[in-house]
Amino acid sequence: MRKLFFSSLAFVFLLASCGSNSKSKGELVGAKGKKWYPEKPYGMELIPRGSYVMGKAEEDQAKVLNAPTRTVTVRSFYMDDTEITNSEYRQFVEWVKDSITRTKLAILADELGIGPEDEGIGEYAFKDTDTSRISVYEKYMLDNYAGLGETGYEGRALNTDVDLVWDTSEYPDEYYAEVMDSIYLPEEESYNGLRTLDVTQLKYKYNWMDIEAAARAKTGRRKDFIKQEELRIYPDTTVWIKDFEYSYNEPMHNDYFWHDAYSDYPVVGVNWMQAKAFCNWRTKFKNDDQKSRGKQFVNQFRLPTEAEWEYAARGGIEGGTYPWGGPYVISDTGCFMANFKPQRGDYAADAALYTVEAKSYEPNDYNLYNMAGNVAEWTSSSFDQGAYEYLSTMNPNIGSGQNQRKVIRGGSWKDVAYFLQVSTRDYEYQDSARSYIGFRTVQDYMGEEDSTSGKRNGLPSAR
Questions:
Q1: For residue 168, what are the CA distances in angstroms to 121, 176, 180, 192, 345?
Q2: Which of 119, 218, 250, 392 has the fewest beta carbons under 10 Å from its own?
Q3: Closest by alpha carbon to 312, among 456, 459, 446, 443?
Q4: Residues 69 and 159 in one domain
Q5: What positions does the domain Sulfatase-modifying factor enzyme-like occupy (predicted)?
Q6: What phi and psi, each to the nearest 5 degrees, are found at residue 31?
Q7: How far apart are CA 412 and CA 415, in angstroms?
Q8: How, if at all, do strands 405-409 and 376-382 pair?
């Protein structure tokens, strides 16, 4: 019987081979799939590949001696045209808040044995509560993999088809009210008649693989290089007070992140690890939509390397001191070109006291705003004072997991002009959040659709 089974398999394989030959006529034509025409990421600009002189070609006024010049080459990539704004980061926070709330509702419904047919909190039960409405594959995954984790609910699908109710007067039942009550601070910690969300519950969990470590390892299994992260993602709004002694900045602490007046301002109070988590979420958020539409996944959003950041900041002006060229910070019309600390501390001289909206001042020649001033920006690179001596000349980067000092670039609203120079290096510890550090993301370029011919263009070069 077993012989007959394998003979049948061989026969089926033979038929399949014959079928594929009939289409390719025996020629090596490649594994044909759907044509891939990626769209340009929203809010990003294409930075063409090219070479430039990285480091301080001009005078090193601070005498830090940590950026000797060398010619390097970087590949093409997309970069956000502005720093990530409060509004954009709030989208991340809202997504995490909704996910945690839905999970709490689904777990309580499961514990009570309530399903969609029971209405109330039952409408938020796990989708697999009614197994007749899920696919064969989803049922297989549920039976074999769901619950393999700390809570026992991992792998179960949330019901996102029903909107959450935030108005207390419209809660559907007492169980729903119980869950909603648990995500706010206790009554004794509230004041002015307002109950505040308990932001310590807003945690984002994700996995990533240390590809570089895996590639260099001589032994080890794939799972040995898969890392799991779980961290609080709400910005530290207290940085506006902690960063400045003997200074009144309480209004910025109270309003800057959540108020609509600051929606288009760059998010601050986000440490390096939170910025990395945002990149992971942005990739997931986009690919969830790609999957729902039957489209191929996009590659990951990430923080730029130090070399990519400097190349983009230069805007194609190889010898420029600042993103606009330089060497001056005042335009021909007498206006300051960026938001920083001019004239020995006259913060208001550049028309701004703290940060400004992300699309302020003139962009550089790559159409990137505020690559100098406003907020300094996290990069993915670790800071080593002597890095330029041994870095590769192609896509240079140091991504040491042991080095917690991460490179920040661009200077900020509270910095003097020296830190706005495209070649100036600085750093901050990865677990530190500041009122003057934000970030923007990049995505590797893999081609784009030509609207005139419908074909994918090749990789662009610098002008």
A1: 14, 10, 9, 18, 48
A2: 218
A3: 443
A4: no
A5: 44-442
A6: -80, 105
A7: 5
A8: antiparallel
- Regarding whether 260 and 287 lie in a shared domain, the answer is yes
pLDDT band for position 458 (cuts 50, 70, 90): low
CA distance 161 to 345: 53
Other C-beta atoms closer than 10 Å to the C-beta of 2 total 6
Amino acid letter, residue 327: P
pTM for the whole thing? 0.90
Domain that holds residue 327: 44-85+233-463
Q: How many CB atoms lie within 10 A of CB 417?
A: 24
Of the two residues 157 and 356, the one the predictor is more confident about is 356
- pLDDT at res. 395: 95
Structure tokens at 378: 């996290």
Predicted confidence (pLDDT) per residue in 4-31, tens digit: 444 444 444 444 444 455 567 888 877 7
Q: 157 and 80 share a domain?
A: no
pLDDT band at 187 (very low <50, low <70, confident <90, very high): confident
Contact 377, 361 (CB under 8 A): no
CA angle, residues 183, 90, 168, in degrees to nearest 5: 35
Same-domain pairing of 57 and 120: no
Is 463 within the bounds of a domain?
yes
